[in-house]
């Protein structure tokens, strides 16, 4: 089915209203009170949901809950993009009030790059999900990737806000929908996984599967590295670890809370995933792996992009920035790019072998209002025969 340009145009047009709205709010003296910033944000979010929801309900039957979320969050991604641009001094007069009275902890390299990621990657993922929905194609894979990225983003954002040096104001509650809705979407996607009988086809041992063996070695190394960097985040006094951080990853010592929280997420949550994947590679036929590989790829993309970009951002103090030359730079970029790229290659590996790792497509696709239901088609055919 062709792309529904009307729905996509309405979603994009609604998202672009974020610019005049933010410009107007920035001029109001009322926005010097964080409680009023919270109220204004909640009202704007509700207003941004109305028109896309109306057009979707007019044109489609049984619209999936996540499509409404995608359409609404497109508005907020435009807001976040302009927060990032204003933090870098590239625009002025749009989100200054929010940086001061909304979420002042965003005024850091990590906070800036989180906003850039949300204003670009999340916007593209949401528009892609809506487009696939209107084309009656599977959008579940995009949704799983988006869930992984959003959950990691919010874990680090809120954890860093609480542990950081900036004040936490009432507007932090505006992040509640971005925690709740991705979690609900993730649970629904996992619960509505395509039905599939487990394959009992004999699979060679891991030693005779060189590609899977390479993935196993990578995940084992990533697990060790994640534990080491997590121990550094909680202040463990281990000489070799301290030397590694000083030489190769000085950004982990930045006093802002974000990189430390990201390392704790890597140790506890990514680490658990690595253990499960190692077991899945040793014992093929576990159908959960394809779904979770996509979630992990989204989380890895968000975490590594923000981490790498923040480590070289001008807002980061010079002594905490990534090394620029020599072996330290090669180690820093090599390790972190592997942590970015390999999870995507593994997700592709799982996607290519659904019998052993599971299927990921959307079970129920969109039904336009203009398209007759099965019951209506049956009645039409019956009346024609009579």
Your description of this structure?
This protein is mainly α and 386 residues long. It has 2 domains: 5-191, no CATH class; 206-357. The chain contains 15 helices and 2 strands. A two-stranded antiparallel sheet has the order 1-2. The radius of gyration is 23 Å and the shape is flat.
For the structure shown, list the relevant keywords.
15 helices, 386 residues, mainly alpha, 2 domains, flat, 2 strands, disordered C terminus, two-stranded antiparallel sheet, single chain
What's the gist of this structure?
The protein is mainly α.
List the helices and strands and how they pair.
Elements: H1 5-16, H2 18-26, H3 34-59, E1 60-61, H4 65-87, H5 96-101, H6 109-134, H7 140-163, H8 176-191, H9 210-233, H10 239-248, H11 258-282, H12 289-311, H13 326-352, H14 354-357, E2 367-368, H15 374-385
Antiparallel strand pairs: 1-2
Helix pairs in contact: 1-3, 1-4, 1-6, 3-4, 4-6, 6-7, 6-12, 7-8, 7-11, 7-12, 9-11, 11-12, 12-13
Low-confidence segments, given as residue ranges, are 374-386
Derived from helix and strand composition plus strand pairing, the structural class reads mainly alpha
Q: H/E series, N to C? A: HHHEHHHHHHHHHHHEH
Query: Into which percentage range does the β-strand content fall?
Result: under 5%
Rg calculated over all Cα atoms: 23 Å
Tally of separate helices? 15
What separation lies between the terminal Cα atoms? 32 Å
Helix content: 55-70%
> What is the typical, i.e. mean, pLDDT?
90
The main β sheet shows up as: 2 strands, antiparallel
Number of strands: 2
Major sheet strand order: 1-2
What's the number of structural domains? 2
Cα shape: flat
């Amino acid at each position: 089915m062709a792309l529904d340009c009307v729905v996509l145009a309405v979603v994009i047009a609604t998202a672009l209203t974020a610019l005049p709205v933010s410009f107007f709010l920035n001029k109001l003296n009322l926005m010097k009170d964080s409680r009023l910033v919270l109220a204004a944000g909640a009202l704007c979010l509700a207003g941004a949901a109305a028109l896309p929801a109306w057009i979707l309900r007019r044109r489609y039957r049984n619209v999936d809950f996540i499509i409404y979320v995608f359409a609404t969050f497109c508005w907020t991604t435009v807001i976040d993009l302009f927060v990032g641009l204003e933090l870098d001094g590239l625009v002025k007069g749009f989100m200054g009030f929010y940086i001061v009275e909304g979420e002042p902890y965003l005024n850091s390299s990590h906070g800036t790059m989180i906003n850039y990621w949300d204003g670009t990657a999340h916007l593209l993922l949401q528009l892609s999900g809506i487009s696939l929905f209107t084309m009656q194609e599977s959008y579940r894979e995009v949704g799983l990737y988006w869930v992984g990225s959003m959950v990691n983003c919010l874990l680090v954002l809120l954890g860093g806000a609480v542990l950081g040096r900036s004040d936490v104001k009432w507007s932090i509650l505006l992040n509640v929908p971005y925690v709740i809705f991705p979690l609900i979407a993730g649970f629904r996607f996992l619960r509505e996984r395509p039905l599939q009988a487990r394959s009992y086809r004999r699979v060679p041992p891991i030693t005779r599967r060189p590609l899977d063996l390479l993935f196993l070695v990578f995940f084992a190394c990533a697990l060790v590295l994640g534990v080491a960097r997590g121990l550094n985040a909680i202040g463990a006094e281990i000489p070799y670890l301290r030397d590694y951080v000083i030489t190769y990853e000085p950004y982990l010592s930045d006093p802002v809370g974000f990189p430390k929280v990201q390392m704790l997420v890597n140790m506890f949550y990514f680490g658990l995933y690595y253990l499960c994947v190692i077991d899945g590679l040793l014992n093929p036929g576990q159908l959960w792996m394809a779904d979770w590989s996509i979630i992990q790829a989204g989380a890895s993309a968000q975490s590594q992009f923000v981490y790498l970009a923040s480590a070289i951002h001008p807002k980061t103090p010079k002594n905490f920035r990534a090394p620029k030359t020599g072996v330290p730079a090669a180690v820093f970029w090599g390790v972190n790019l592997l942590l970015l790229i390999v999870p995507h290659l593994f997700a592709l590996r799982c996607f290519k072998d659904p019998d052993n790792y599971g299927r990921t497509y959307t079970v129920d696709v969109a039904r336009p209002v203009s398209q007759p239901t099965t019951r209506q088609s049956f009645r039409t055919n019956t009346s024609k025969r009579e």
